[in-house]
Design a protein that fits this description.
Distance between the termini: 27 Å
Helix content: 10-25%
Strand content: 35-45%
Shape: globular
Largest sheet: 7 strands, antiparallel
Structural class: mainly beta
Oligomer: single chain
Number of strands: 7
Radius of gyration: 19 Å
Number of helices: 2
Number of domains: 2
Order of helices and strands: HEEEEEEEH
Length: 155
């Protein structure tokens, strides 16, 4: 969860507040005049299977003018918020690109949770080890950056 300021909490629901959406493709901000639509969704059970530890993958359907979309897309980053305070929505991977007509393109995006859909083999680790070591190994094998902000020490 992202921590917001008291100013953000006061202004976000006011009808007069102008909301901001920023989209970056390959670290280049897309001009807001080229953003036509942005729909966020989350899916947990898309294959009728339940597993302990399941988490939702965030999906975005992003409609842009074709001229704003580069030929090669390495990464997409989206943030939203109000003037003076942007809230990160996240980094996304392109799942599908649909050319709607001569002028618009729809990008179907998935967050990095999709990269964790593999059978993990931790046999190369030296046990016993800390759970943070296992977590780092999983993230490395998935190709996802791990940022650790705090640890709780239990004895």
């Amino acid at each position: 969860m992202y921590k917001t300021s008291d100013n953000y909490k006061l202004k976000i629901y006011e009808p007069s507040t102008r909301h901001i959406l920023k989209v970056f493709i390959n670290d280049v901000e897309i001009d807001k005049k080229y953003i036509l639509d942005c729909k966020l969704s989350q899916t947990l059970f898309n294959n009728d299977e339940f597993a302990l530890g399941s988490v939702t993958a965030q999906a975005v359907e992003l409609k842009l003018y074709k001229t704003a979309v580069p030929e090669i897309i390495n990464k997409v980053y989206i943030e939203s918020g109000i003037n003076g305070e942007a809230i990160p929505i996240g980094y996304f991977n392109v799942d599908d690109i649909s050319i709607n007509d001569d002028y618009t393109v729809t990008l179907n995006l998935l967050d990095n949770m999709i990269k964790f859909e593999f059978n993990y083999d931790g046999s190369a680790l030296e046990y016993p080890c800390k759970i943070s070591t296992v977590l780092q190994d999983i993230c490395t094998k998935a190709g996802v950056e791990l940022r650790l902000y705090f640890f709780f020490k239990y004895e």
